[in-house]
Amino acid sequence: MEKLRHRQELVVSLLFGLWLPHCLTQTTPPSRANLASTPSGSPQAQSEQLKVRLGGYPRKHNEGRVELFYKGEWGTICDDDFSIANANVLCRQLGFVSATGWTHSAKYGKGQGKIWLDNVLCNGGEKSIGLCKSRGWGNSDCTHDEDAGVVCKDERIPGFVDSNIIDAQVDEKKVEEVRLRSVIAPGRKKLPITEGVVEVKHKEGWAQICDLGWTIKNSHVVCGMLGFPHERKVNKNFYK
Description:
Layout: H1 2-27, H2 32-36, H3 43-47, E1 51-55, E2 63-70, E3 73-77, H4 84-93, E4 99-103, E5 114-117, E6 149-152, E7 165-169, E8 175-181, H5 185-189, E9 197-202, E10 205-208, H6 216-225
Parallel strand pairs: 3-5
Antiparallel strand pairs: 1-2, 2-3, 2-6, 4-6, 7-8, 8-9, 9-10
Domain SRCR: 52-153, 178-240
Protein name: Lysyl oxidase 3B
Signal peptide: 1-25
């Protein structure tokens, strides 16, 4: 009887020893190497708010070449496999309710720098383009002749906060921030801000630019930095 019990305990121990490693194999999360083989958004892009802007010329304020700010550098998206679902995700990130279309073959002009994403496949419900499947950040076989663009419905998402600030690279290799500050009450509620006092980031605050010697060419440059295709004449006396 004693020997029989001992044999039963031995059989149970052997079965448990075979079953436990099998369970651990099934419940252990896949390795980073396995995850890398599946196109998906970068952890950095998912955890941080990805900056998106529209560029190019000619265009309206709700359309343009898509540019993404990643790892301290602005870059574009290749038009391979691009779809209206991708455009919807991007337009919502820009504060518009949806997309009405998208463009290919650098319709708004060729971008510069990196082509950050290629073969982007969104379902359409993602909160960020960084959450859509792709070949991975910086992995592309495209040229800037294939830069993708979007056309957003000219209707803003209620309550969407838009800082109306754009980053621009200057000669000193520093990032300069420029913004328009609306001084008209109705203009403060309308986004994007299209008219106001020009301010630049200086140290820890914002500083205005003196209008002495200011020309229409200066306005053209600032409007371009803010993503607008051109400038309009402003009544200077109103701002004095």
